Amino acid sequence: MGDSITAKRKAEVWRRLETVTDPELDEPVTALEFVTRADVDANNCVHIEFRLPTYWCAANFSFLMADDMRKAVRELPWVADVSILLGEHMYADKINAGLARGLSFQETFGAEADGDLDELRRTFLLKAFQRRQAALLAHLIQTGCDGALLVEMTLKELADLNLDGDGARLRARYLERRSIASDSLAASRAFVDADGDPLQAESLSAYVRALRRVDINAEFNSALCRGLLHARFDMETPLSTKAGRRPERPQVSSQDM
């Protein structure tokens, strides 16, 4: 496989990884700098390595991100196989062994598995839906949109709404998660709660304020994760795919944290 084809395919892999988010923070794993390697070999097999801010990050969160990365990259038609390797983590050996064998979270951890991974994924997708909805609604209200009109607005009307750059970005992010709450038919209400029920004009402001408080807490957690990651690893060294070489992996133990 030529260098130009390899570079093109590596870029495609990174674009697919940009669609994978940390389940709690709702930010791309690439933007959070969790992914340290994404290479393509001569057999069209993709090799991905990632690390997390803490040595003890929950096993189900860690497995969920790895599983989402694998699914996202496998959507590329030329990919023959995907290997995911988690480093510097208390459950790394068990998670990596399960991933290598294509096992589910429950199969990997057996009796230790805490809950179903699909249920966990939906829980966090709903939280992402709420955060994105609150951000969009707050923006629309701030720019003068009437609450009574917002609660009656259809998805088609929202899609046709003339928005500025920030508004268009918030709308695009919200629409990515809108179907999590209920069917995204064009005639459906644009804004519903997590159960799929329509919002009410008289309680809209309180509803948005409550969700924004949750969003502020998530923003704090995001800043904390970034700080922990930078404190734990040498973040001055470029990632391997950007620098053309693999960085040395730091030796970190639980005693170092």
Brief descriptors of the model:
single chain; 257 residues; mainly alpha; GMP Synthetase, Chain A, domain 3; three-stranded mixed sheet; 10 helices; 3 strands; disordered C terminus
Q: Examine the secondary-structure arrangement and name the CATH architecture of the largest domain.
A: 2-Layer Sandwich
Strand content: 5-15%
| Low-pLDDT runs | 238-257
- Percentage of residues in helical conformation: 40-55%
Number of strands: 3
Report on the structure:
The chain has two domains: about 5-115, Fe-S cluster assembly (FSCA) (GMP Synthetase, Chain A, domain 3, 2-Layer Sandwich), CATH 3.30.300.130; about 125-220, no CATH class. Helix content is about 50%, strand content about 5%. It contains ten helices and three strands; from the N terminus they run αββαβαααααααα. It has helices at about 5-15, 60-75, 90-100, 105-110, 115-140, 145-150, 155-160, 165-175, 205-230, 240-245; strands at about 35-40, 45-50, 80-85. The protein has a three-stranded mixed sheet with strand order 1-2-3. α5 (about 115-140) runs antiparallel to α8. The longest helix is centred in the C-terminal third of the chain and has 29 residues, at about 205-230. The protein is globular. The protein starts with a helix and ends in a 14-residue tail after the last helix. About 30% of the residues are buried.
